[in-house]
Write a sequence for this structure.
């Protein structure tokens, strides 16, 4: 395998300080439903609203949040499946907004995606060989020993039998199909893979196999992941840095250990308190922060802090004056400790939440 | 909802207008391709050579020397507001809106001809449609309930046969059996329902049956596949888990969902049928719109062809419009804005 | 047809039947590829007031079991044998009409995906009052009032107005609440919840589980909660049954299962999940391989193809002899495994538990 696959026009030297991927103030609005006789456009749906984060070479950023929080849209914007409405995305030291078509192709070979549903994301009429080999053909890359040999070695690497080169996706189990998707994503040795809920559809035992595989591959190929998931325990396992999203905005972003040991945002608290743990005694004496109401519409988000309508802290702890601030003043993502940023007017750790979760001492 | 209807209505009107433009242009341009003047087709056989003074006078009299848009406007305003038709010799004929012109071949107003013919076609189409909808959906439903069973296999084989048999086969066959051999329907000539309902029914039964046979077969197969799919849906399981009786589950939950897409097709089929009854009318010797159009084509009777084409298009557009509106009512997920 | 001499609530030996008793249940589906043994010899009991969790991976037979209890395999090509006694009535041999009478009134069910499980063309309220009208002789107006009361009870705000909304106008959590309202409107004594929270977000999941527990306490009903998530079981259930390859491989009280599990498959499940309540492991320990084919079920122990402990058993027993479900360390704890109980306990304490 030569380095032909990474034929992207990288600047001669990437400054050491610049991360692999840097996302600054990126928004993605979808047009609202049309209304009126003349089809006037409704309010735009703010799927992603000004998110900023960065991903270092070979590291994993976890994006967590409930459905509709904009995490998948963020992933699609990064991999250029969607154009951002505004904001800047820099990859490998270059602004990808200004890429020429030829450079765009190279960019696509450096960023790949793995999808949630291993059933619908593979073309049922193509063999595994065709699916995994497609990136080579599309990018016009010719590996040393030919595409077939390269694909087979990739299949072997992700734990598939290379002899199954000519089989079709339906002949594989869910876990194996996800391996096919991983092999395809890895074929061109990308620098970054956006994994959109890659293990959510899998059974627990198989899920662990795939998580381990992803970690091994990261070690081996030095690839960075943006790992989108709703399962906080999986994200805790795989991510180095975690961003919690709600209604298109990042609520809290920190290094994994910081976030899980000292979460500051009430929404992060609610998410964490809701994760069931396989320990009945702990479950029985555990306090649960129940979010009330439904997710507000992203086309008509609440004023002030977008989370205040469902915030337990807002309801139960804040004074009227403080509540007014939540209702009217838009919080900004502020760095509380180095690398730990929170979108909240009144961030604070919550007693009783993490001591149940963080320690290894069984009850 | 009102806005939704208004938007659809506006769309329908635009489509009808476009159809009128296109048909008009086709009938103006096609004769010139064979180096003849539309005047010939308009008026019928004229004993004048193309370049004669008389011909030029006629061309002028009927406005064929005007620019196309003016001719179109003349045609359109006739439909919208009516017009007075004159050949300069006979007494002028007052043709009130909607006026589709005058057939110089038949010496009749096109509107009058169509008004006589339309009830025949419409009674034939609607009757057949009711028959095939009920029959097709019933056969399809029973087949779907036990796929692979005897009922299913008989139903589907039968419908395959029915789909493959054209009207000009089933029609004469039915006539042979019921009119000539059994003599059950001795005289099947058409009379309007207002004059003699019994005779009207007698004349319509065989066309209905043969049309329903053809279309019903398609509907049976469609209902069957929709129904099989629906009966596998999660909400059918929910309905059963509630303890609903089997007929309720099948009809209220299964059929209700399975039939929804069929409504769309039904409207369009019915609309299309009105404009394509030539064969059926010929087979059963009914003087409907199809018969009118085939006769007009044989005689190169341009005004009649133009009128029938536009009417057929209008019926289809109206059918589509009704289906759109209906769909919003039967499927609440259709966004109405 | 023999008429039982004893009242149906009693067994032939005179002992009282539990509220729900499933005995040697088998559900087999003939297919072109062979006989699919989705459930193969399952037995368990459940009393009122208890919540039983049935845990297993996809294809383990847990959903097929729940459909069998509701008699929903009737009319399909499934071959169902064994006995299911609900409150003294047998379901497997009963006619469709007899079971239909019990559905909704004696047993209610909620499903995984509330959007596809609700009819898209009827309003949520109509569908709920329909469930009430089947089993109760009341006017439509009364049924509507009852449905609204039920919607309020499951926590749907502004219930009288939302009554006329269609399922697609509800959020995921609201839909599942509506499903619960529909399942419970006739106050059935048995509620089966098949992966009720799998399609929902964690925060909504917590709300729904909370609601199920509340209603269970209020109605003192029996609940079967089917899930693949051991965390959900720990949070909600009193008893657990672990299914693998269509069979029960371990069952017992929730504490037994989580603090002293004895079956290698249960260990595997516990080990393979990343846990929020422990120090982060550097590496997860998955169960190798994939779930067995239900057409060619492995001979011997169903789990032997993936079990890392087969070398602890003498000879080839794991591959040749099908182990019985036998009592483990404590009464009521049953395990299907050839490893002797004492040795299993030791493996758990020394090899498994410290590495969780």
């Amino acid at each position: 395998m030569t380095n032909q696959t990474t034929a992207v026009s990288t600047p001669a030297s990437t400054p050491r300080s610049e991360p692999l991927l840097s996302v600054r103030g990126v928004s993605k609005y979808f047009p609202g439903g049309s209304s009126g006789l003349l089809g006037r456009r409704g309010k735009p749906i703010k799927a992603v609203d000004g998110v900023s984060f960065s991903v270092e070479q070979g590291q994993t950023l976890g994006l967590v949040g409930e459905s509709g929080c904009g995490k998948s849209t963020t992933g699609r914007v990064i991999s250029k499946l969607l154009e951002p409405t505004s904001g800047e995305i820099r990859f490998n030291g270059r602004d990808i907004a200004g890429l020429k078509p030829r450079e765009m192709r190279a960019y696509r070979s450096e960023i790949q995606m793995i999808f949630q549903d291993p059933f619908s994301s593979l073309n049922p009429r193509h063999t595994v060989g065709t699916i995994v080999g497609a990136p080579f053909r599309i990018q016009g890359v010719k590996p040393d020993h030919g595409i077939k040999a390269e694909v087979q070695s990739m299949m072997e690497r992700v734990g598939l039998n290379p002899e199954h080169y000519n089989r079709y996706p339906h002949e594989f189990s869910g876990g194996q199909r996800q391996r096919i998707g991983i092999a395809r994503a890895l074929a061109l040795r990308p620098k970054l893979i956006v994994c959109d809920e890659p293990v959510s559809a899998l059974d627990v035992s198989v899920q662990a196999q795939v998580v381990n595989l992803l970690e091994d591959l990261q070690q081996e190929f030095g690839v960075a992941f943006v790992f989108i998931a709703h399962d906080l325990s999986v994200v805790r396992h795989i991510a180095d840095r975690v961003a919690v999203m709600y209604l298109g905005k990042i609520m809290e972003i920190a290094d994994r250990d910081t976030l899980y040991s000292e979460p500051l945002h009430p929404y992060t608290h609610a998410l964490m308190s809701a994760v069931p743990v396989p320990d009945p005694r702990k479950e029985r004496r555990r306090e649960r922060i129940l979010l009330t109401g439904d997710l507000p519409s992203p086309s008509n988000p609440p004023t002030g802090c977008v989370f205040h309508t469902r915030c337990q802290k807002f309801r139960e702890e804040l004074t009227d004056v403080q509540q007014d601030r939540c209702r009217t003043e838009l919080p900004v993502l502020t760095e509380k400790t180095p690398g730990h940023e929170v979108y909240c007017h009144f961030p604070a750790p919550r007693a009783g939440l993490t001591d149940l979760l963080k320690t290894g001492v069984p009850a | 909802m009102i806005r939704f209807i208004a938007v659809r209505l506006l769309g329908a009107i635009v489509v009808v207008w476009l159809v009128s433009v296109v048909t008009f242009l086709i009938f103006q341009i096609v004769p010139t391709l064979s180096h003849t003047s539309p005047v010939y087709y308009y008026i019928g056989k004229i004993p004048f050579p193309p370049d004669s003074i008389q011909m030029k006078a006629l061309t002028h009299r009927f406005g064929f020397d005007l620019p196309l848009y003016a001719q179109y406007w003349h045609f359109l305003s006739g439909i919208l507001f009516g017009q007075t038709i004159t050949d300069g010799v006979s007494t002028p004929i007052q043709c009130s809106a909607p006026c589709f012109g005058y057939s110089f071949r038949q010496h009749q107003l096109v509107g009058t001809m169509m008004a006589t013919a339309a009830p025949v076609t419409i009674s034939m189409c609607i009757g057949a449609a009711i028959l095939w909808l009920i029959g097709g959906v019933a056969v399809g439903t029973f087949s779907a309930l036990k796929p692979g069973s005897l009922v299913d296999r008989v139903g589907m084989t039968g419908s395959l046969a029915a789909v493959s048999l054209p009207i000009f086969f089933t029609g004469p066959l039915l006539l042979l059996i019921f009119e000539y051999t059994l003599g059950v329907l001795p005289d099947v000539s058409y009379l309007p329902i207002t004059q003699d309902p019994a005779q009207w029914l007698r004349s319509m039964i065989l066309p209905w049956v043969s049309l329903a046979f053809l279309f019903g077969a398609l509907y049976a197969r469609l209902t069957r596949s929709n129904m099989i799919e629906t009966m596998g849906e999660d909400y059918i399981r929910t309905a059963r888990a509630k303890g609903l009786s089997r007929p309720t589950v099948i009809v209220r939950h299964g059929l209700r969902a399975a039939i929804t897409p069929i409504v769309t097709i039904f409207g369009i089929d019915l609309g299309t049928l009105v404009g394509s009854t030539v064969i059926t009318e010929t087979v059963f010797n009914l003087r409907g719109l199809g018969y009118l159009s085939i006769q007009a084509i044989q005689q190169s009777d341009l005004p009649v062809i133009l009128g029938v084409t536009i009417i057929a298009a209008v019926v289809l557009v109206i059918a589509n419009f009704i289906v759109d509106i209906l769909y919003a009512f039967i499927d609440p997920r259709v966004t109405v804005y | 047809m023999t008429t039982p001499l004893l009242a149906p609530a009693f067994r032939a030996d005179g002992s009282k039947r539990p509220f729900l008793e499933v005995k040697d249940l088998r559900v087999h589906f003939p297919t072109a590829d062979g006989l699919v043994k989705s459930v193969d010899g399952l037995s368990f009991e459940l009393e009122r007031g208890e919540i039983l969790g049935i845990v297993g991976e996809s294809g383990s037979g847990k959903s097929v079991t729940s459909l069998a209890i509701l008699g929903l395999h009737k009319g399909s090509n499934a071959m169902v044998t064994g006995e299911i006694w609900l409150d003294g009535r047998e379901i497997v041999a009963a006619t469709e009409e007899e079971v239909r009478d019990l559905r909704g009134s004696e047993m209610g069910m909620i499903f995984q995906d509330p959007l596809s499980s609700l009819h898209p063309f009827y309003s949520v309220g109509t569908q709920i009052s329909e469930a009430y009208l089947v089993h109760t002789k009341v006017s439509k107006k009364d049924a509507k009032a009852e449905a609204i009361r039920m919607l309020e009870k499951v926590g749907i705000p502004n219930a009288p107005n939302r009554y006329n909304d269609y399922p697609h106008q509800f959020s995921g959590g609201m839909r599942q609440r509506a499903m619960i309202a529909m399942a419970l409107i006739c106050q059935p004594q048995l509620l089966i919840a098949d992966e009720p929270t799998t399609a929902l977000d964690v925060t909504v999941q917590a709300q729904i589980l909370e609601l199920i527990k509340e209603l269970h306490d209020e109605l003192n009903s029996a609940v079967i909660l089917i899930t693949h998530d051991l965390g959900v079981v720990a949070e909600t259930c009193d008893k657990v049954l672990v299914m693998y390859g269509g069979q029960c491989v371990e069952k017992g009280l929730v504490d037994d299962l989580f603090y002293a599990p004895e079956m290698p498959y249960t260990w595997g499940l516990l080990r393979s999940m990343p846990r929020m309540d422990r120090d982060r492991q550097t590496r997860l320990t998955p169960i190798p391989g994939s779930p067995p084919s239900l057409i060619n079920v492995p001979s011997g122990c169903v789990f032997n193809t993936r079990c890392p402990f087969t070398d602890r058993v003498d000879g080839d027993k794991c591959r040749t002899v099908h182990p019985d479900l036998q009592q483990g360390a404590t009464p009521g704890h049953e395990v299907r495994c050839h490893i002797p109980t004492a040795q299993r306990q030791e493996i758990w304490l020394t090899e498994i538990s410290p590495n969780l």
User: Anything to note?
Assistant: The CA atoms of residues 114 and 272 of chain C lie 28 Å apart. Chain C touches chain A through 49 residues (CB under 8 Å).
